[in-house]
Structures are given as C-alpha cells and as structure tokens.
Amino acid sequence: MAVADVVRTTLGPRGMDKLIHDDKGNTTISNDGATIMKLLDIVHPAAKILVDIAKSQDSEVGDGTTTVVLLAGEFLKEAKPFIEDGVHPQNLIRSYRTASYLAIEKIKELAVSIEGKSLEEKRSLLAKCAATTLSSKLIGGEKEFFASMVVDSVLAIGNDDRLNMIGIKKVPGGTMRDSFLVNGVAFKKTFSYAGFEQQPKKFENPKILLLNIELELKSEKENAEIRLSDPLQVEPKLLSRLAIGDLGTQYFADRDIFCAGRVAEEDLQRVAAATGGTVQTSVNNVIDEVLGSCEIFEEKQVGNERFNIFSGCPSGQTATIVLRGGADQFIEEAERSLHDAIMIVRRAMKNSTVVAGGGAIDMEISRYLRQHARTIAGKSQLFINSYAKALEVIPRQLCDNAGFDATDVLNKLRQKHALASGEGALYGVDINTGGIADSYANFVWEPAVVKINAINAATEAACLILSVDETVKNPKSESAQGEAAASAMGRGRGGGALRGRGRGMRRR
C-alpha cells in the first residue's frame, strides 16, 4: 500500500509530480509512474512485484503505469478484510481471476473501433488519444501542440516498429513552443577539424555517402583515399561514424563538399533509413545505389547548438523531435511524456479500438461486475463485489487529485451508469467543472489495450501476493546478528555442523 500511495497523487490531469533525489545527488521530477517506481529504493519483496508490473505496463503499452499500481494496491486492500476473517486465499484468487476475465470481455465489448476511417479522421482520432495521455503530464498545457507533433512523427515511421526511428533531441533554452519536428533526421554538429568553416552549409538535393571508416592520415599503410572524377557534377555530403581528419576536411572544403565525422551510430542508422543510403565500409567503387538523398540539407543554429538537419527525405521512415525548454529536468520530463504519447499512438494505430477515459470505463465495468455478482451464489459474490469496488479507485483518485468531493462525484457517476437505457456508460469525471461529463464526447479517449493490460497485470500481481502465505528469509544473508543466532541455534540443538559453520562465518 505504501508504494501505491507514493504514485497515487500523480494520476490524471490534475496529478502532482514527484521530485526524487538519489544518493548521487541526481534530481528527477516526474509524473510517470514507471519512472517513479524505478527510482524508488524498494526493499520489501512484495512491493517489488508492483515495480515489475509498472515496468511491464510501460514496455508493453507505454502508458497507464500509475493506473496499474493503483489497481493492484486497491485489489489487495479490498482482499485484506476477507483474509483477516479467515477466508482461504485460493477462493479469493479464483474469484478475482473470474472477475478480471469478465472485465476484459466487457472492455472489448464497449471498445469503439477507429478502423476504416479516412487518413484525416484517423489523424484527429490519434491526436485525441495523444492529448489524453499528455493531459496528465508536465507539458499538459501545450497538449494540442505536442499531440499533433507526436502523431506526425508516428505516421512518418509508418509500419516500422523500431522506436529509435523517432529521435528526440533535447536543447536547453527557449520555450516549449520553440520545439519542432523535423521530417527526417537532425543531430548536433559533430566534432570538426580545420577547414570545416569553408564548407558549404546548405545543399538542395545532395547525394549522401555514409561511411564507417576513418579518413584520417595515420601511416602510409592504412591510407584512405577518395577519388572524385568530377566533384562539380554532384553536391555530395559525407557522414562518417569515425573521425575525418584535418587533411580530409580541408580536401572536401576545397571541393565544396560537406563532411561530418564521428556521427553517433544511432544517428547514422537513422540517416540511412531516411535517405535510402547504405553505410559503406570502403571508399572504393562508390556507386549510385549506395548513395542517399534528401530535398534539403542545412546546418542550423538551435539554441546554443548547431544542428545538421536533413529534411524532405524520400523514404521518410524516420522523424526527429527537437525539444526546447528551460530547466534540464523539465526537458527530460517532457521527453518521458512524449515517449508515453508516442507509444500510445503506435498502439492505437495497431489495435485501433478506444474506450472512454476519465474513469468512465472503470465505473462501467464496476457496475457490470456488481450486477453479475448478484447472479452468483456463495462467497464469491462478495469477492467479485469487492473487486468491483476496487475498480472505483480510478475515478475516486481523479477527483481527489483535482480537489473535488470524491463521494459526491462517485454517487453521481454510479447513478448515471445504473440507468437501464445504458446511455450513462460513457460518463466519467469532468476535471474542469468537478461534475460528471460524457468522456467520449469530450474526446477523453484511451486505447482499449491500455485498460486490458492494466487490469490483467494488476490482477496477476494481486493474486501472486495473495497466494504467498509466508515469507522465509535466508539467515545467511542477514547481518552479524543473524550469524550469532544461527550459531546459537546450532548449539541449542547440539548440531556440530551448524556450530562449525557459525564459527567459520564469523572468522570470515
């Protein structure tokens, strides 16, 4: 419960942030459940399970990390009185598993598909999902601005699954609004040698050669040489992962060629994907097929840094978001927020079904499970009821974090969801007014997969902790106290082996 309480207040658009300070003096300000859980110094073995589910939610879906920890904590809290009354944990586990299965079936039934819409419609739908994710983050104030940027970047990489094809570069200074998206690749100007300034800094339709060799004069033996029959016919650019020496830089400058050495591996791969070039390990026999191209290459000043920017790339399988902002911690949190939004948009593109957010889906499943519980005889009726009650933690926490009267709002929501007509199924907490509103109509959407994964993982974790009836510690791993106890135990039982081991341990 202590772990759940730490992240509890970060849920939703009005959630607070945590400032985490570690032994090394690093400071992190974050609202992201997974980040907070990773940075907490957790000793309790059962609490570590919650960290694991937060991580799994983060890697699988990207968002909903706080939700999953809260749900698991709440399931356990609801189970506690039953365990204290002597109910066998296996009975509880069985009922919880049944309830989670029913809940997931219900989510699938309630989910609305965004498949088969035109590209324009799809864009706006994906932007709504991204905005819902961003609304609870530090950059929530600019969520529309960033949501469209995220959707553009995800659409740019198409069906490519590699997340590293979307580069996020952080440049301190300026305001958040100065952030921009490059439909291609951008990276910081690399280490440069003499002669660099004479090189042209802007090309239209250049040919791009990517190398993985050093063009530095070391000794006669390993002399790399590039021969260009007529450098005026093309406007080439050279990118190399390794250094390009003084002589090489000057040589290219004389021939109006731009070169950059020591380009990071990741950036080089992204340039290759974007421009259609292939990384070469030799400069002999360079043919047209291995050269990349783009519409415009230029070197631009961004804040205090100079950036090399390739835009209008033919295969367009990559995009770069350049983030600006005041403090370093702020930009890092913005990057974490964008990562969540990017993951969500990718998920929504693949599993194109969404559900109403703002606690609406949680209330609807809660109502459905309570109704279902009435049809069951025996104890499991109570257990499924308690599971249904636990689901209400999401809307309740949304109210608490925004400073609304949670009891009042939840009563209104229960009343709305209980309507026989079923029209209240999409109602959730209205963060702006402190009442209730149709979340779906207000475009508070989240991909169904987020909720399904959260309920699955939280139920698994709760069942796992419930199935443990005793914690056994290995005395060896205890401190000197433990050692003394172990040797005393040996003496008491007259066990020579134990006593011997006790002494040996002490000597070590």
Low-confidence stretches: 492-508
Give the helix/strand class. Answer: alpha+beta
Largest sheet: 5 strands, mixed
Summarize the amount of helix as a percent range. Answer: 40-55%
Which quaternary structure do these chains form? single chain
**What Rg, in angstroms, do the CA atoms define?**
29 Å
Q: Count of DSSP E strands?
A: 19
> Please, how many helices?
17
Overall shape: elongated
The rounded distance between the terminal residues' Cα atoms is: 39 Å
Mean pLDDT: 81
Strand percentage: 15-25%
Keywords: ATP-binding, Chaperone, Cytoplasm, Nucleotide-binding
Biased composition (Low complexity): 477-490
Pfam family, one: Cpn60_TCP1
Subunit structure: Heterooligomeric complex that forms two stacked rings.
Describe this structure in words.
This protein has 508 residues and is of the alpha+beta class. It is 47% helix and 16% strand. The protein is built from 17 helices and 19 strands. Strands 8, 9, 10, 11 and 12 form a 5-stranded mixed sheet that branches. Strand 17 (427-429) and strand 18 (436-438) form a beta hairpin. The longest helix is centred in the last third of the chain and has 23 residues, at 328-350. It is elongated and about 85 Å long. The model is unreliable at 492-508 (pLDDT under 50).
In brief, what are we looking at here?
The protein is an alpha+beta fold and 508 residues long. 47% of the residues lie in helices and 16% in strands.
Main features:
4-stranded antiparallel sheet, single chain, disordered C terminus, 508 residues, ATP binding, elongated, GROEL-like_equatorial_sf, 47% helix, Chaperone_TCP-1, alpha+beta, 16% strand, 5-stranded mixed sheet, 19 strands
